[in-house]
Amino acid sequence: WYQRRVREAVVSTQSTGIDTRVAPVVGRNGPSKKKKKRKKAPLATPDVTMGTSAEKKQGVYDIWGSKSNNLSDSKRDPCLPPPVEPPAFYKTSDTKLAAVELPHAGTSYNPTFNDHQELLQSALEVEVKKEKAKLKATRDAAPPIQITEEDYIKEMSIGLNQAESESEEEKEGEVETDSQAKGTVSCERKTRAQRNREKAEKLKAEEIATAKQEKQHLHQMNRIKAIQKEIKKEEKELSAKTELRQAKNLEKETKPGKYGPGKFLGDDPEFVLPEEVSSSLRQMVTPSNNVQERFTSFQKRNMIEVRKKVAPHRKYKLKSVEKWRKKLPEEIDELVKMKRKKKKIKLSE
Hints:
Blueprint: H1 2-16, H2 53-58, H3 113-140, H4 149-156, H5 162-183, H6 192-222, H7 224-253, H8 290-300, H9 329-348
């Protein structure tokens, strides 16, 4: 059966004209076990060269621009961590001060006479303010209290004359009872004439009030121009207040804020006396410290909070405990007895 099927297959191939020959395999027998290599798809790497097409044509653009963070999820490399986005309220500093301020012209090694005098005047004003603050602190301090003999006797004799105070209290009580008796009103029924009179008085008062209100309305209608002037005056005052508020806000932007218990005082102005002014840069004396100047600049620009030096101290006082060995034998016996008593009381309970 098998041979018959093979013959039929050979005859059918010969009739169709298909070549059934197989090429010889060199080196090994059997079918080839070669696997086709699949081409790996390239990883989606972000475009490093940021910038618009017009900027790229010009050849000048920022390769580390902010557009690198706006890449879609499909273009971003999955192996790399996602970019960190700063919070909405993040800000480095809220002042408009420059990182490095220009020094005063009077601090130059060869300043002009006017610039040097201006610097000395500013330093003098700072020292005068300090002296005034010291004098105010000493002046406002409470003077020592001096107690005389008369004051001492008065304080010590308070509350001794109780009989007089009791009699005064009794008199006050009698006066109060008399006033209460006078203040009582008799509850008598009103007559018809009295009620009619009260009703007429009430109607008359209402008519007077309405007439007065109408008169006020007419007066306001006649003084429309005056009211317009008052409105314009109020608007001017409001605009002036808003301008002052805006000016204060601008000043706050250039002044250090308060972000802690300490208050920013700043450094004293650096100056050199006229005798110490040098004519050459080599002989110039520099009293300033660059590290201290940078530190105060950070505080001035609200990047570091102002703090005070805290001296080393203890939060709680040290406890003094006497050791068992140092105690006398009598004290030890008393302690043992106390412990035995406590045990007996507990057992009895």
